[in-house]
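User: Watch each token:
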Amino acid sequence: MITLSFMERIYESVISEHLAELRQMIFLSGPRQVGKTTTARQSARDHEYLTWDRQSDRRRFTRGPDEIASHLGLDTLQDKKTTLVFDELHKYRHWKSFLKGFFDVYGEKAGIIVTGSARLNVFRRGGDSLMGRYFLYRMHPVSLSELVRTKIAKAPVSPPAGISGSDFEQLLVFGGFPEPFLRASARFHNKWKRLRNEQLFREDMRDLTRIQDIGQVEVLAGLISGQTGQLMNFSSLSSDVRAAVGTVMRWFSALENLYFCFSVRPWYRNVPKALRKQPKVYLWDWSLVQDPGARLENFVASHLMKAVQFWTDTGLGEFGLFYLRDKEKREVDFLVVENSRPWFLVEVKSSGKRKLNPNLEYFQQKTGASHAFQLVMDMDYVDRDAFSEKKPVRVPALTLLSQLV
């Protein structure tokens, strides 16, 4: 069982490589307490750190780029590039124009890391885009693969690596947020969940959205937690929270933007009578899911979403995560797509006693996916590359998930 006081994250390699090779700013986005600030500062080594949450730094930000540059000595001759970490800057109303001005004037003198617990790319629809000036990296909770591998691979999947059953159980029970995972204490975990919930709804939701009915949004979040892995029915949710459908959809979007949950949409190309609209929803913190079967599915969904976003963000291609279901109620839990082409299917099962789901073969034929896996949670680790199999096959979760990110 892992009991380290500090754990290295794979994102440290990403940031170090970026700072060494690229001029663009790093946007490191992810949920509260996933380790963004610690990882950014650890990766940057010698650096200057400013945060919007500190009053003295806040005054400097509001006075503009030149004030920050003067404070950091960027207006004097230097023999090496300075690394800057700007934390929670998205809380500043004019953060986009600040960064644009700062980067355009001082970008050659400084490597810039911007961290935030709300989505730093939601502003793209605005007129003051920072496109071309940054690369976005989306930071996820700890995964099984990250327990044994923290260096960037040259290909999306890696060889399998053995992971102990106790580490797997610790991750499943306490979630992938570093502090509760490393402490592995039920009492601490309960207090941590309560505090994080208060921060999400009483601080982030209030500060970063215009939503007034925070209590109703909390009710919605509770309903979503109980419907993990199910198709979203916004009409039913609107009735339960006593709000208009459009309002509920807006609240749901805010919960996604604040990293409470994420949605997986249906894939319908080349699939007769496929569902086309309704998403399935999962939580960023799978430890909040009470139903054991739903938690296992959420656990796998989180690993797959982390993989496709990491592969995309690090330039290995354009990847996406979907599910498959048709009007005949044939369904497979997940489909991973690479550059708009189906790559592999995943059906989650808790027990190895379950027969191979015939829907895997059906949807593999319809989509042309290269691989089809029935991911079994209670099977022992097998030291063999799951991606060497072309036909539908049952594989241990410990094997397949260790090959991802």
